[in-house]
Amino acid sequence: MNPAVDKKPQTSFSLRRYLLLGILVPVILFIALDTFSLYRQALTAVTTAYDRTLLASAKSIGEHINAQGNDELSTLSAVVPYSALEAFEADNRSRMVYRISQVDGRVVDGFADLPMWRGKIPQRGPYAALVDFYDDTFRGDPVRVAVLLQPVASEHGRAMAVVQVAETLELRRTLARQILVDTLWRQALLVGVIALVVLLVVQRATRPVRELSAALQARSDGDLTPLQTDQAPRELLPLLEATNSIMSRLHYLLEHQKRFVRDAAHQLRTPLAVLKVQVQSARRGDVEPQQALSEINDTVNQATVLANQMLSLAKVAQLREQPVPMAVDWAAVLREVALDLAPLIADKELDFDIDTQSAPMQTHDWMLRELSRNLLHNAIAHTPAGGRLHVRLLCDARFAALVVSDSGPGISEELRQRLFQPFSAGQTHSGSGLGLAICHEIALALGGDIHLDNRVDHGQVRGLDATVRLPLATGTITSDGQTSH
Q1: Maximum distance among all Cα pairs of the chain, rounded to whole angstroms
Q2: Fewest Cβ atoms nearer than 10 Å: which of 57, 69, 426, 457?
C-alpha cells in the first residue's frame, strides 16, 4: 500500500475565513471594549444624577433646622417638610431614609439606626457645599448616602448639623440593567451589520480568485495558454504573471520534448536501418568480413554521435530551468576543450593558436564546455589539412566574445538561413547537423547570440568566423577559478 496515496489531504487554508476573522475579531473586541466603556459612562452619569437628587433632599432638610445655643452647647431641632421626600415618590422600587445629627453624633431626627457618617469632606468636591457621597448598608440593604454638613445660624444660636439622606439601590440597579441591555442590543445590531457588510465585501473581493480557480479547473490537460490579466485585480497580477511565466516554460519544455521524440524517431531510424542491412549483408557473405566490420563500425559511430548530440540538445533545455551555480571562467574551460581536441588538430597539422582573457560566466560548466567543443570541432572539420585555425576570447565591460576563425570554404547565403536549425548540416555526409543547433540553443539560454560570417579577401572567401557573445557575471575570477564579489 502506498502511504502517499492513503495520506489524507490537509485542510486547505481559506482566504475568506482569514479575511473574515481578521476583520471581525478586532471589530468585535473593539465593540466589546466600547460597550463596557459606554456602560461605565452611563452608570456614572446615572449615579451623578441620583446623587444630585440626594443632595437636593439633604439641602431641603437642612434649610429647616433650628439651633438653640452656640456650638457644643447648642440644641438642634428640625421639621422635615414633605417636599424633601417628594423627589422619591415617582417610583416605589426605592426607599429613602434620613438622619439629622449633631457633630458629636446625637440624633436630632430621622432613623437612628442609619450608621453615623465617619468620613471626610473631599478637598475639591464637585459641589460648593460641604457634601460627601458614599455607599453603606441600612438594615441589611445596600444604600447610597449623601451627607451634608449644614451650618445653622439664627437669633437664638448657631451650630453645625450633619444631614444624611440614604436611598436604596433597586431603582439604580434596574436603570443600570436597562442601560446595559439597550447598549448590548444596539452594539449587537452594529456587529451584525458590520459582519454582513464584511461578508459581502469579502465575497466580492475574493470572487476573482474563485473565478480564476474555476477557469484553471475547466482547462484541458494540454492547455497552457496564458491567463487573461486585463480584467484581473491589481493584487492578483503578480500571481497571474508568475503563473503565465510557469506555463510558458512548461510549454517550451513540452514542445522541446515533442520535437526531441519526433527527431529521435526520424533520425535514428536511418542509421539503424543501414546497420541492419549491413549486418544481413555480412551474414550472407556479400562483402568481406573486414569491410563489413568497418562499415558497421562507421554506422555505429555515426549513430553514437547523433544520439549524443540529440541528448546534448535535450540537456540544454533541462539546464535552462535549473538554478545557476557558481560562476566559472570561460577561458579555463576553452583551453581544456582545446587540449582535449589537440589530437584532431595535430592529425590535420593545423596552424592553431589560441588567445584568451579571463571571462567569469554565471552558468553551468557543461554549457560552456559543450558550446566551445562544438564550435572548435566544427571548425576543425571544415579547415583543410595544414590550414590556419585561430581562437580568440575577448572581454569588454559587459560581454565576452568567442571568435573561432577557420580557413575553410565558408557558407552560402542559402545555407546561412537554416544553419542553426536541427539536422541542417553544411555537408550532409560529414555530420548530423546538430552541432550548430546546440550552440545556438546554448547561446540563447545564456542570454547571448551567435553569428557566422565569411571572411572575404579580394572577392574570395578565405574562411569562416563563428562569433558567440555572452554576458559576463558580476565579480572577478580569483586564482582558484572561483568568483569573488
Answers
A1: 162
A2: 457
Reading the chain (485 residues) residue by residue, the pLDDT tens digits are: 444 444 444 556 677 788 888 888 898 899 889 888 888 888 888 888 888 888 888 888 888 888 888 877 778 888 777 666 665 554 566 788 889 988 888 888 888 899 998 888 887 766 767 889 999 999 888 999 999 998 888 777 788 889 999 988 888 888 888 888 888 888 889 888 988 888 888 888 888 888 888 888 888 877 788 888 777 788 778 888 888 888 887 877 777 677 666 666 655 666 777 778 778 888 887 778 788 788 888 778 767 766 666 666 666 666 665 666 678 899 999 999 999 999 999 999 999 999 999 999 888 888 888 889 889 988 998 899 999 999 999 998 889 999 999 998 888 877 766 666 655 554 444 444 566 777 888 888 888 899 888 988 877 888 999 999 999 886 544 334 444 44
Measured distance CA(59)–CA(64) in Å, rounded: 9
Contact 57, 83 (CB under 8 A): no
Q: Which residues pair with 274 in a beta bridge?
A: none
Angle at which helices 365-382 and 435-445 pack, to 10 degrees? 140
Interstrand relation of 157-168 and 141-154 (parallel, antiparallel or unpaired):
antiparallel
At 66 the three-state DSSP class reads strand
User: What phi-psi label fits residue 459: left (phi over 0), alpha (psi between -120 and 50 degrees) or beta?
Assistant: left
**CA dist., res. 483 & res. 478, Å (int):** 6
Write out the three cell numbers for 142. 445596600
In the numeric block, the cell 555480412 is attached to: 282
CA distances from 273 to 109, 277, 391 (A): 133, 6, 39
CA gap 244, 246 in Å, rounded: 5
